[in-house]
Design brief:
The protein is mainly α. Helices cover 78% and strands 0% of the residues. It contains 5 helices and no strands. The chain has helices at residues 2-30, 33-59, 76-94, 96-117, 129-146. Helix 1 (2-30) packs across helix 3 (76-94), helix 3 (76-94) runs antiparallel to helix 4 and helix 4 packs antiparallel against helix 5 (129-146).
């Protein structure tokens, strides 16, 4: 049951990433990039603040940090701003399919390297021939999608 829920959440994540790109690209057509970033990140900040407050009230003070945090852990927000801006900028110029196929191909490469070298305080995961073949197929698919 837990695997089905995780798969459903993953499918929903993929769908919402495309929807977010569409929404932000639409905003960018009628506004400026700083406005799009303010609206999307402001909304995310407000929603996450409400969730945090609810969590703190319901769960208690354990919702705060429980230990030291590596410096790079704080970069998620900065990276998120770049992701929102880049997707909003690229979709109108190159389309959904090319933008996301390249993003997925690069994510797979970065994930394999992160796993192999045990980055981000995670244990190393060996690279299998299946992962390499699958990644090469995704790269080939991204290249084919870009062909006119």
């Amino acid at each position: 049951m837990a695997n089905i829920l995780c798969m459903a959440l993953t499918v929903l994540l993929g769908l919402t990433a495309v929807l977010q790109g569409a929404f932000n690209a639409t905003l960018l057509r009628v506004s400026s990039l700083p406005f799009v970033l303010m609206v999307t990140n402001g909304t995310a900040f407000l929603l996450s603040s409400l969730i945090f407050l609810f969590w703190t009230i319901r769960i208690g003070p354990d919702a705060r940090l429980s230990g030291p945090v590596p410096w790079y852990a704080w970069l998620g927000g900065v990276v998120g701003v770049y992701i929102i801006a880049a997707v909003a900028y690229l979709i109108p110029r190159f389309g959904f399919t090319w933008t996301f196929s390249v993003v997925i191909a690069v994510q797979l490469i970065a994930s394999i390297l992160s796993d192999y070298f045990g980055l981000w305080q995670k244990p190393p995961v060996p690279v299998s021939s299946y992962r390499i073949i699958a990644t090469l197929l995704i790269i080939a698919a991204a290249w084919l999608v870009g062909k006119k």
